[in-house]
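tokens incoming
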């Protein structure tokens, strides 16, 4: 049935968060504009993406992963130059602080990986770091790795900018539309059922964030995608804070931080995380409410004290929180499943779906349009889980471990 108000499309993208909007943008860039994005909420980017800190880091442990992040940064820089819709991208650079000898060795390996990928980084002295972040005490630092092209953006603005550019190219984005089922015939996707009727399509892209498990279940594909709670706070204004300060990561303390206007944004990866089984909540509904966890905020403040003791005196202005998804091997799930033609994944973001969104979009396009996608893109296929028997409790424990060791050595 053709819907009066929405109409059919060659490609339906389910989910209007940073990833779904980024995928539509990438499809349009590749000349695929008969695309319809469906978002169940009344506004785009109103679930996990709205809570993200917007950090964009390119220093990673594999060349492919560095290149994916570099593609995102290139895209954000181009988008920021467009006066009509900007993602709020600030290329302020980033400092990565090592407090242990093992971490120094890891930074050296990461620098070699960055060099191989063509990403500029440099080791700088504590004095040079202090010149960039004057309120911090860098004396405990054993090494500081500087990446000048890193930065941060405003996740909502990014989603809106993707959407704006995609609409100009001819894509359609509809809100208030919940996908309730996926139609298949002879081993291929042929459409979706929504609260506003059926829509015919050849391809469905699952970018449903914490609901990606539910959407995959609609076609009987079982994927180990587990929401894990994540939080950070923004303080009241603090002396010396300004939006041009670099982003900072202190992996030995499991912390990240940046300035949010004139306040401190401080978050991290607590050692005992809280996760959900995906069947704890339903398709079409919001993810469970999260109460602010002041103990975790206190833990962040305690861990940053050796570098910034004044954090303890700052009042908290707001706490941001959500359920980013984690998978047992900590890697994105991207591409079409061999088990069902026309069913494509764009999820399992392991808490870097905003920074990764442009790169994920590019890889989704590569998986769909290239006859020979790269080894890396093929390695992200959902089939790596669909071809094996995984056990839910074990998989959830592994996904939680990915969160808890987010800044673990070599992760
Ligand atoms: C506190 C916090 C801080 C973070 N900081 C960062 C950071 O600094 N950098 C970074 O890169 N990442 C960060 N993340 C992670 C990042 O937010 C996620 O990886 C990213 O937002 C995932 O985007 P998404 O589009 O997959 O999910 P979402 O933003 O959750 O979007 C999925 C959308 O799908 C819709 N949907 C679901 N089911 C259906 C359906 N059946 N029909 C129609 N629509 C549906 C939902 O309503 C939702 O809008 C952070 C996360 C949190 C919680």
């Amino acid at each position: 049935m053709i819907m009066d108000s929405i109409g059919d499309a060659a490609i339906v993208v389910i989910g209007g968060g940073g990833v779904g909007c980024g995928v539509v943008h990438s499809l349009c860039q590749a000349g695929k504009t008969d695309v319809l994005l469906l978002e169940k909420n009344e506004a785009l980017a109103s679930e996990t993406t709205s809570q993200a800190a917007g950090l964009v880091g390119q220093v990673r442990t594999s060349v492919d992963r560095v290149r994916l992040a570099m593609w995102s940064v290139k895209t954000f820089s181009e988008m920021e130059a467009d006066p009509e819709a900007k993602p709020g991208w600030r290329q302020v650079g980033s400092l990565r602080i090592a407090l242990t000898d093992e971490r120094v060795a890891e930074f050296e390996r990461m620098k070699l990986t960055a060099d191989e990928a063509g990403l500029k980084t440099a080791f700088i002295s504590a004095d040079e770091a202090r010149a960039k972040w004057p309120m911090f005490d860098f004396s405990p630092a054993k090494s500081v790795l500087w990446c000048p092209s890193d930065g941060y953006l405003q996740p909502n603005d990014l989603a809106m900018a993707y959407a704006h550019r995609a609409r100009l190219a001819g894509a359609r984005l509809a809100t208030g539309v919940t996908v309730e089922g996926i139609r298949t015939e002879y081993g291929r996707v042929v459409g979706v059922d929504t609260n506003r009727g059926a829509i015919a399509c050849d391809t469905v892209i699952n970018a449903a964030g914490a609901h990606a498990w539910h959407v995959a279940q609609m076609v009987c594909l079982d994927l180990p995608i587990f929401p894990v709670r994540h939080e950070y706070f923004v303080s009241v204004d603090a002396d010396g804070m300004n939006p041009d300060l670099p982003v900072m990561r202190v992996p030995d303390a499991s912390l990240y931080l940046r300035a949010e206007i004139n306040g401190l944004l401080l978050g991290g990866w607590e050692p005992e995380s809280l996760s959900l089984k995906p069947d704890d909540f339903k398709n079409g509904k919001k993810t469970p409410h999260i109460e602010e966890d002041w103990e975790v905020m206190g833990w962040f403040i305690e861990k940053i004290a050796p570098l910034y003791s004044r954090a303890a005196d700052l009042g908290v202005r707001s706490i941001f929180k959500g359920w980013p998804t984690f998978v047992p091997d900590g890697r994105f799930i991207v591409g079409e499943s061999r088990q069902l033609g026309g069913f494509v994944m764009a999820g399992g973001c392991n808490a870097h779906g905003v920074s990764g969104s442009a790169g994920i979009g590019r890889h989704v396009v590569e998986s769909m349009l290239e006859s020979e996608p790269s080894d890396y893109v093929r390695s992200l296929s959902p089939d790596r889980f669909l071809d094996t028997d995984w056990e839910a409790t074990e998989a959830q424990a592994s996904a939680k471990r990915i969160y808890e060791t987010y800044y673990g050595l070599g992760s």
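note: The two ends are 48 Å apart (CA to CA).
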